Amino acid sequence: MTGLPASTDKKLGLVIDLDTCVGCHACAVNCKEWNTGGHSAPLTDEDPYGGDASGVWFNRIHAFEVGEGTAGRTVHFPRSCLHCETPACVTVCPTGASYKRETDGIVLVDEDHCIGCKLCSWACPYGAREYDLDAGVMKKCTLCVDRIYNENLSKTERVPACVATCPAGARHFGDFADPQSEVSILTAARGGYDLMPEIDMKPTNKYLPPRPRANTCTAPVTDDDSIAPSGFLGLVDRVFSR
Amino acid sequence: MHPAYSVIFFTVSSGLGFGALMLLGFLALIGRLDPDPWLAAAVMAFALGTAAGGLMASALHLGHPERAWRAFSQWRTSWLSREGIAAIATFPPALVFALGWVVFGEVRFPYACAAGVAALLALATVTCTGMIYQSLTAIRAWAMELVTPGYIIMALAGASLWLAFAWRLVGNVDPMVTHMPLAAVLLGWALKAIYWRRLDIPSRGPTVQSATGLGAEGVPVRLLESPHTQENFVMREMGHRVARKHAVQLRRLAQGLAFALPLVLTQGVAQFPDLASWLATVLVLTAAVSGTLGLCVERWLFFAEARHAVTLYYGASRT
């Protein structure tokens, strides 16, 4: 079962737009909210109201500073399972609890077969898997497998919780196997890229780079008052400089 | 990587047991096994006890030990699964060998063949153990080709010291058994020295730039804000780092305990055959204990020095 499918019919995944993400953590919160009652429920928290709270989350929002000084910018960086095409987390699993679905490429954990050896979490370079201490099994993003096919939800709601909630429209869900899908077109148009391409896991999820700045920063305000203004202000300056 | 004591105990203990089975199989096949029943009982109890004890420890640290049997199913892709199968498969021939050596005092055919098969399976087991780590591309310190040979040679080095002690205990000073530690320990020392030297070379592995796709060549990328205020599982399990200066000292300690002291003691005893028997025995025992402690330090460092790629998302700039 931990053998990988040669190819998958669909390649479902996310496009995450680092240009528009505002770092509000709404995707992480809605993910937690949905999934603590979903396929991998519960997403256990340890000491949730104490001084050392920790728990299982499928989505973590980092913020990076890129460049320095006036050229520097803050980039918010959501990190979750990338549903790789060749995921090492699946092949290292000794029990077959981890698997990649042939139909849509989603990487899942069968919690009834997981022995909690944690080797999959070591194998993943992206830190996508989080161990549930309470349940003694590994948990991970399911791409909201219980939403995207859920016929009890309206069609617009059949997307992962993180995508449904993003107020900035920075997250997109779709099938990368279809070149005409929104995610494929977005990826091609905006130069979507893989994280850590040198570790050959072939992530399905793509990240869109921040767009180049339209206006470069204006000259910084300085305390230097030796610069003489021109025009009327120049006249005033000259009068008062006497 | 977090150096969990259960994993250190498991790899050291089962390494010693399977290492001993490899050496015993070799000795049985070349006809150098001492048929002394007390030696046989003590050595087989040591080999099977440490091998089985290590396996039990590894099962106990699982989230669901009662499902451990499922781990034998995925041998097609998983080195952990292969290790489990090879480990269990080692026991039947090892027990046949033990029956011959301990109960019947017989070390020739067919028991020597059983010992040989057990030795091969023990070698396969330790190879799988090494490959579990070596196959993880997310951890540069482990995805190096010296990792698996290191596991094998360290198992042999540690076990050879205990066999030398056991032989000494029954008053058998077989030069083959006396000199096995010399070869294994020297080889282990050379291999670990090369491994550490390669580990210290700055690599072209993943950087925070490639992990985030941000910042072209030379543009600095630094973590501005962590996603959470408290440590999560990923940081506790993968984020452990040992300070550079401590690593240097611990490498010295590991080399002293695992290689230098055992070499001096065993070869010193070999050089002075007039030494009182009790003193020689105590010195060889000290060498074996030192070797095993050194193995523990080496294994602790193997984890503590390994930097996981995910640390790039938590403030590390390179692995």
Would you write up a description of this structure?
The complex is a heterodimer of chains A (242) and B (319). With 242 residues, chain A is an alpha+beta fold. Chain A contains seven helices and eleven strands. Chain A has helices spanning 26-35, 88-91, 119-123, 145-148, 161-165, 182-190, 231-241; strands at residues 12-17, 45-46, 54-55, 59-66, 73-80, 98-100, 107-109, 130-132, 137-139, 171-175, 206-208. In chain A, strand 2 (45-46) and strand 3 (54-55) form a beta hairpin. The mean pLDDT of chain A is 93. Chain B is mainly alpha-helical and 319 residues long. Chain B is built from ten helices and one strand. In chain B, helix 3 (79-103) runs antiparallel to helix 4 (111-134).
Short descriptors:
heterodimer, A: 242 residues, alpha+beta, two-stranded antiparallel sheet, 7 helices, B: mainly alpha, 10 helices, 2% strand, globular
Could you provide a short overview of the structure?
In chain A, 20% of the residues lie in helices and 19% in strands.
Instruction: Count every helix of chain B, treating DSSP H or I runs of 4 or more residues as helices.
Output: 10
What class would the helix/strand composition of chain A place it in?
alpha+beta
For this structure, the quaternary state is: heterodimer
Estimate percent helicity of chain B.
55-70%
The shape of chain A, in one word, is: elongated
Distance between the termini of chain B: 12 Å
Question: Structural class of the secondary elements of chain B?
Answer: mainly alpha
Q: Order of helices and strands of chain A, N to C?
A: EHEEEEHEEHEEHHEHEH
User: How large is the share of residues in beta strands of chain A?
Assistant: 15-25%
